[in-house]
Amino acid sequence: MGSNGEMSDEIQHRSYWRFSKQDFLPEESFQSWGNYRSALSQTCFRFKDRLISRSDDVSEIGELRKQSENEMKRCLTWWDLTWFGFGSVVGAGIFVLTGQEAHEHAGPAIVLSYVASGVSAMLSVFCYTEFAVEVPVAGGSFAYLRIELGDFVAFITAGNILLESIAGSAAVARAWTSYFTNLLNRPSNSLRIHTNLAAGFNLLDPIAVGVLVIAATIAIISTRKTSLINWIATALNTAVILFVIIAGFAHANPSNLKPFLPFGAKGVFQAAAIVYFAYGGFDNIATMAEETKNPSRDIPIGLLGSMSIITVIYCLMALTLSMMQKYTEIDTGAAYSVAFQSVGMNWARYLVALGALKGMTTVLLVGALGQARYTTHIARAHMIPPWFALVHPKTGTPINATLLITISSALIAFFSSLDVLASLLSVSTLFIFMMMAVALLVRRYHVKEITPQTNLLKLVFFLLIIIASSMGTSAYWGLNPNGWVGYAVTIPFWFLGTIGLSMLPQQRKPKVWGVPLVPWLPSLSIATNIFLMGSLGAEAFERFGICTVVMLIYYVFFGLHATYDMAHLHRKAQAKEVNNGDMIGRNEGP
C-alpha cells in the first residue's frame, strides 16, 4: 500500500512537460548501444514472442492505463456520443461523393449504393460496439486487436490508424479551405499561396493549418466543452441537411429516376466502395469509452443510434439529388449547389457550402479527440514513445498525443494536395474493419487455456475459408462482373466456413451487449469489407504495401524491442508478486 502512495506522490511531483531520454526511451533495449545491438541479435526470438503473445481485458483496462499517470475525466453520456457520431461521420463526403458517383458509376441507383455501404458500415459498428462495452479504453480497435490477435497484428493496425488519422485530417483541412473559398465566391485556390515547388506540393495552405490548430486547441482544453461545441455545430449542419432534403423533394421530378440502373449492378457496387467513406469516422466514438460515464449503456445507444439515423439521412439525400436532376446532368464538383441552381434556387449554393463547412469542422473536432486517444493507447503499449501516453492532470486530456497528430497533419496539409493518399486511406479503413470482425469471432470462440486445441485449429481453418472465399468473390467480381461460375464456387465455400464456425461451441458470451447472429453477421462483415477493398484500384494496394513495408522496418528496429521489454517487465512484476505471496504464505504457516 505504501509503495502505491509513494508512486502517486512521485507522479504528482513530476512535471507534465518533461523531455528526458527516459520519457521517450525508457526500455532496457535502448539504454546503451550495447543493449540495442543485443536486442537486434534477438530479433527473431522476440518477434516469435510478440507474434504469439496476447494482451487481456484486465491489462488493457487497468495496467496499461497507469502509463498515462493521470486519468481521463468521465464526463460523457449517450447524448454526447450520439452527437459525436453525427459530428464525426457527417462531413463533406455526402455533398461531394454523391454527385460524383451518381454521374459516373451508379446513376439514380446511387441510393442503393448508400444502402449497401450503410449495411456494411452497420456490421462494423456492431463489432465495435461489443468491444467498446467489454473493453472501455481509449485504444479502440488497437486495444481490441491486441487482446484477440496479438501485438504484431495490433501494430500493423496501429500504423494504419496513425496514417489514416494524420493524412485524413490533412485532407479534410485542405477541403475546408476549398469550401471556404467557394462560400466567399472567390476563384479556386485564391486563398492558397502559389510557389514553384513540384506539382501537388506547390499550393501552400495556411488556412488548413489554422483550422487544424483551432480544432486541436479546443480538444486539448476540455472534452466536455468540445462536446458542447460539437453539439451546436452539428445541430446547425443537421438543419442544413434537412433543408436540402425537404427543398429537394419539393422540386423533385420522378421521371429523372429513369433509367434507374444505367450502369448495371457493377456500377452500384463500384459507387458503394467509394461512398462507403462518407460513413467513416464512427470508430472515433469507441475511443471515448474511457471518458464515458456508463459505457455499457451509453456506447450502444450512441453508436448504433447515430449510425442508423445517418444511414437514413444519406439515402434520402441521394434520392433527393437523383430526383432533382437527370444523372447525366449532375455536376461532379458541386452537385447539390448546381442542382438547386437548375430549379431556380441560386442562393441555396451558399447554404450547401456552409453545411459542408460545418460538417468538416465537426469532423476535425471529433477527429482531434478520437485520434489523440488512439495515439495515447498505442503509446501506453510502448509501440511509440510513452511520452505520448501522458494525460494532463488539470485538463484530463492527452495533450502530447494531440500535438503529435496535429503537427504531423498540419505539415502535410500545408504542402500536399493529398490526391495520391485518398485511395490509400480507403484500403486502410476497410482493412481495419475487416480485422475487427475477425477479432470478434476469435473473442467469441477462443479463450486462452480453456478452448481445446482441436477447436482452436477448427476456428483458424474456418476463418481462413471465410477470408479466402471472400477474396475469391471480390477477385471474380473485378475480373468478370457479368459471370456467375466463380460465385458458384466462392459463395458456397463462404457458407460452409460460416456454418462450420456456427457448429463450434462459443467460449465467451458478452456480459451486457453483444453482436446478434454470431457468426453470420461478423462473417458477412469480413466478406463485405474484402469485397469493397477489391473494388478499389491496384494503385491503392501498391501504396498500402509500401506503407506497410515502412511500418515493418520501424517495427523491427524499434516497436518490437520496446513492446518486448515492456511485456518482459510486466511478467517479472507478476512473478515477483507470486513469489512474495508464496513467502507470506510460508511465513504464516505452522
UniProtKB/TrEMBL annotation:
Taxonomy, superkingdom: Eukaryota
Entry keyword set: Amino-acid transport, Membrane, Transmembrane, Transmembrane helix, Transport
Topology term for the membrane: Multi-pass membrane protein
Pfam families: AA_permease_2, AA_permease_C
Keyword match S-adenosyl-L-methionine: no
Subcellular location: Membrane
Keyword check for Repeat: no
A single GO molecular function term of this UniProt record: L-lysine transmembrane transporter activity
Gene Ontology CC, one term: plasma membrane
Gene3D superfamilies: Amino acid/polyamine transporter I (1.20.1740.10)
Domain Cationic amino acid transporter C-terminal span(s) in chain numbering: 513-562
InterPro entries reported in the protein's UniProt record: AA/rel_permease1, CAT_C
Transmembrane segments annotated in the record for this chain: 75-97, 109-131, 152-177, 197-221, 228-251, 263-282, 303-327, 347-370, 399-418, 424-443, 455-478, 484-505, 517-537, 543-564
Family of this protein: Belongs to the amino acid-polyamine-organocation (APC) superfamily. Cationic amino acid transporter (CAT) (TC 2.A.3.3) family.
The protein's name in its UniProt record: Cationic amino acid transporter C-terminal domain-containing protein
The species this protein was found in: Salix udensis
